[in-house]
């Protein structure tokens, strides 16, 4: 600042402020270098298919008493032990399991491995084999079903033959009782009383 009494304007010491600015710039550069060294990029593995079945219906239809002292893993809802959180319903639990946060905690990125031409051809071949096996199983199932239907038809036919034989035997045994019974049946409006004579 100027020391003259008639000069009322404030004067700045440029050398001092240049030194302060240089120190601040130097500190910022050092901070950037430290942050680059401190956090190396994490190499996460690619997203892959689950090899276990998600248990959604083990607690279905069961009632549980929940108190203040109940641990979070046993409280109501679905518990994720990887993320240590509780989700209230099955749809949200599936969304959570397939979500970004859960996959990160498992150590996976959300990127999928690119398939090669050989992998695609192998998958097509395996699917074709599965289809052929299903076709053979289907043919076997249809054959079994047709055999069962044929057997049921034969049983029904045998029953009909037995009934016919019984009717013929009854008619031959009681020829004199037949006309009176048929007249009574016509009057009453049905063909017989339903009782069989032995």
TrEMBL record:
Its main location: nucleus. GO terms for biological process: mRNA splicing, via spliceosome. Gene3D superfamilies: Classic Zinc Finger (3.30.160.60). It comes from the Eukaryota. Keywords: DNA-binding, Metal-binding, Nucleus, Zinc, Zinc-finger. This is U1-type domain-containing protein. The keyword Cell membrane does not apply. Residues 75-109 form the U1-type domain. One of its GO terms (molecular function) is DNA binding. GO terms for cellular component: spliceosomal complex; U4/U6 x U5 tri-snRNP complex. It is found in: Nucleus. Pfam families: zf-C2H2_jaz. The keyword Zinc applies. Residues 156-198 are annotated as: Disordered. Signal peptide: none annotated. InterPro entries: Matrin/U1-like-C_Znf_C2H2, Snu23, Znf_C2H2_jaz, Znf_C2H2_sf. It comes from Euphydryas editha (Edith's checkerspot).
